[in-house]
Specification:
The model has no long low-confidence stretch (mean pLDDT about 95). A four-stranded antiparallel sheet has the order 3-1-9-10. It has a four-stranded antiparallel sheet with strand order 2-7-6-5, with helices on one face. A two-stranded antiparallel ribbon has the order 4-8. It has four helices and ten strands. By secondary structure, the chain is of the alpha+beta class.
């Protein structure tokens, strides 16, 4: 199974994020039902490793926390934008959760990227370099302030690639500790 670990975003916030959609040539906006905060992308995982992984993830103890949005950005940079995202304010408990998830994944011998965890929610992927339109999107003030939200759990998802795009299905949800 092709897997990733993420935090679900409340539906009302997903709708607000969807309202940030703008026409940028060559852009592919993330469907509302697929908006999430990725903690770790795993790729293909066999059933035996999946069993080990769910056991390792179940041992993670981090209290629930709030997340606040912090504006928009792009990867890798404004001159060569490939991904548009909305960022999150620094939150030590989110970083702790991401670190513990990474340790659990590595302990199950699932390779991970070396790059530093950068909390963001992907809004769109770009096929063409469109720095002018992306600059207009990034410099535009938000229509409304995105509310903070409470994180009480994280989820292991299966990502099934289809001709219509990826379909994300929860495999197992893991509760965070009470505060």
């Amino acid at each position: 199974m092709r897997l990733f670990i993420a935090i679900e975003i409340p539906d009302e916030i997903k709708k607000q994020l969807g309202g940030m959609h703008t026409d940028i040539p060559g852009s592919r906006w993330v469907p509302l039902e697929q908006i999430h905060l990725t903690l770790s992308f795993l790729g293909e995982v066999d059933d035996t490793t999946l069993d080990l992984l769910t056991g390792a993830l179940a041992t993670i103890m981090v209290p629930g926390f709030n997340l606040c949005f912090s504006g928009t950005g792009c990867f890798p940079d404004r001159r060569h934008p490939k991904v548009l995202w909305v960022g999150l304010e620094p939150e030590p408990l989110l970083n702790s959760l991401a670190s513990l998830v990474r340790e659990a994944v590595l302990a199950c011998n699932i390779p991970q990227e070396e790059r530093h965890f950068s909390p963001h929610i992907t809004l769109a992927r770009l096929k063409l370099p469109t720095p002018r339109e992306v600059g207009a999107f990034l410099d535009r003030p938000p229509k409304q302030e995105l509310p903070q939200f409470r994180v009480r759990e994280f989820t292991l998802f299966q990502s099934l690639l289809t001709s219509q795009g990826a379909v994300h299905t929860p495999v197992k949800t893991f509760a965070l500790s009470p505060p």
